[in-house]
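User: I'm curious what two different proteins look like when written out as structure tokens. Can you demonstrate?

Assistant: Sure. I'll show them one after the other, since each token string lines up with its own sequence. Here's the first protein:
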Amino acid sequence: DLVALGTIADLSPLLGSNRILVKHGIDVLRKTERIGLKILIREAGLDLGEIDTYEIGFILAPRLNAMGRIHHAISSLRLLCTRDFRQAVELSKKLNLKNTERQDLTAGSYEQARRMVLGKVDFPKALIIASQEWHEGIIGLVAGRLVEEFYRPAIVLSLGEKVSKGSVRSIPGFNIIQSLREFEEYFIDLGGHPAAAGFSIETVKIEEFKKDFLQTVEKKIGADLLCPFLDIDAEIELHAINQNFYNRLSKLSPFGMGNPEPLFLARNLEVLESRLVGKEKSHLKLKVKDKNSNPFEAIGFGLGLKEEILQLIQKKEPLDCVFKISENTWQEQKILQLKMIDIKAS
């Protein structure tokens, strides 16, 4: 169970032996006797028997990691090791509170970072922004969100009086650690991989590094690299999607880093119903069909914030949709659902 948890939380590729360990580790996790994990799963509102890579990667791991990001990871370790019920409850509540604090810190810092980016006169091919107010434990999350929104490499720095910490996220096709190693003389320490990196740097050297790095990036990154794309696995008609198809698809799991869920494209879909859902009305709930299919429930996380998609739906014209297929449990019934990733006019 801990092997599966750690492999997914560390974003290790789910290939080869990793995939085997995670697949069997999830089976063990669903039956775990670790009281700390059971309480953490309960506090997160999850069903132990339904735990999969998504629940680990997006719900449990952030809670365990939050302590190390903004406090000390010892509480997470104690939760995983404890055999005492009361201690498990106390530690689980502590992790949930720290995770909420981490979310608030990240949201506030991201909004500041976003305003900095949008306030730039020139829009460079890589983003480098810094602040004394940002906690070094969340700058990687801020960098990741900047890459999602602006689709270019992002370096976010937590400024210190003498030494500053930097966290970096990149886009497909641009090896960030290789590029940063060309400027190794600036760093106190540097580590990472092609998609992400971290470093320490003397604060007085930041401006010089920024100038040199951006000059290099302007030469290395072509306009085509800054165009987001979706790697679609297959085009499909909705009437071909049924429980048997989903069961066969599930044999490719566990999905995650290095082994992503298959991505499908369906054309000329009719939207029968649409509404915004979620606390901030940021998610888009749909009911869609093609000319030969029964209606399918669909959810687009975050798509409710995309004005161009909302306008398309209001026009009531046929749409091309890119999605993943999931199984949703509602009132003890399992229903296939489309997880919308993008929507365009047909």
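Here's a second, unrelated protein for contrast:
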Amino acid sequence: MAQDSAGTVKESERGKHSATDIDVDTQPFVSVLTPVYNGGKFLRECIESVLNQNYENWEYVLVNNRSTDDSLAIMREYVAQDDRIRIHNNEEFLPQMENLNHAFRQISPKSKYCKVVHADDWLFPECLSQMVKVAEEYPSVGIVSSYRLVNNKVDLDGLPYSSNFNSGKEIARKYLLYGHSQFGSPSSLLIKSDLIREREKFYEESHLASDTGACLELLKESDFGFVHDILTFSRRHDESMSNTKCQESFAFIHAKLFSQLDYGSFFLNEKEQQKSFSRILNKYYILLARNLVQQRSLEEFKRQKEVLEKLGLNFEGMRFLKKLIRELFQQLFRYFGLEFKKVSNK
């Protein structure tokens, strides 16, 4: 068995024929990718949504990250039914961001586009066909998104309805300046496969929630497509990454700090960059103070403070003290039934 750069042995299971043998002349070939770790609860719904696509020229790679539930058994059921589906079993468990990068290395060399759908999410039947249509219409587009249903709410709105094409630089600027994002999660996007193959690591592995940074990286050289229709579903539940590790570790605000430092100078002028970075850093200090007041954990405080060291930033004691006093007063006001606007950790 061959070994890849993630240090795991490639062990594959597939249906009767290799997905790379599919004729790609009539429709661009799409690699659909689902990383799975103990995702059995929602996995059938996810897989069925891929099988129900009105687009036919795809392979479906299920990357099993050493699941201990019934995920692998479910995958094998579907492999037996459709030879476009194959399983890649990791030999060892990989951390989340490392596993996502490892999963990208399993896509077919023939695929023109890659569509990720996480195991607790699913796709509407026209997802692949509509996203591929936009990508084919605009060759400079490297990422395609759409409206997204998150449980029972629709988001990722805000772009002009009249066009499916958006300047990549303008989309990046809107995110860095105002926090307006049409990226959603990896399940929301179709990406040109060549842009993935060009990079040894598509996602930054040093922190969670680095998918937005990956999008900004692609928008340095490509444009952004958008389908004005609801094409993806993302599930928010107690066990989802966005409700657990990302929230607990302040991953979203950390990722915004990384993005401002890594891409602010490329997409913004100096004045814009300073203003945007100051806004995000101010939010970080509010959350740092709130965490200390509410959790009363010095260990957690030190762990969050280490994020600044990783970014090469000095801890501003006076700035933190002001936010700490602010949080203490807010806690006192809440005691008397008064409530102030809450700062989110996203």
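A detail about the second structure: DSSP finds twelve helices and eleven strands in the chain.
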